[in-house]
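Because showing beats explaining, we think one record worth quoting, sequence and backbone structure tokens together, and here it is:
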Amino acid sequence: MKNLKNISKRMGILVLAAVIILSITACTTPNPQPNTDPKDSNDGATDNQKVTLEYWDAWPGDPQKSLIDGIVKEWNDNNPNIQVVRSTTANDPYKTKIKTAIAADEAPDVFFSWPQGFSKPFVDAGKVLPIDSYLTDDIKAQILPGALVEFDGKVYGVCCTQQVGTFFVNTEILSANNLSVPKTFDELINASKVLNEKGIVPLAVGQKDLWPGMWYYNQIALRMAGPETVVSALNKEG
């Protein structure tokens, strides 16, 4: 596993960079030497010393690839002593790749991961570094509430994406049933009831890959019950 003693004081810069420049699709998690205390580490990126950081993600296709490549290049051009080398792999192979690398203590310095269940084994095994001490107030101000990946009260990752679920509306069906496009949740429920009573399926979602339906449930559950209740339900508490 890579020793972060030579770069620990620069990791704060990298965390900020992850928040700013990788704000498209997932979460990043630094990979350190276990039990490394950043407060006791030396600054390895001096004016005459170059640090190279490995960064892995799962976005080999455009538009993400071109965007991230361009941003990494801009970072490297502006920070000659702290260079980021990006490696990207398709989604499913990446899951195997990152698990294998972490198990073999060969993980990169910073990597994309999925929160909660996917990342928890890395935390439990002591393979990843809590980044609380690197999250300054300036960095936290750029992060949406709830966008930090936490385990046992410690932050291990910064989410750098905001995904939006959308509805496509058949305006002809609405007009034929004297309905307007819903603008609120209550209006959506009312329109759904009207259409349902007339034998028209009000909502449909492609479930071939199973996960798309999760978006609708998550949005409704979070809005109506709140994040704390949803997390409690996931943990089978209460």
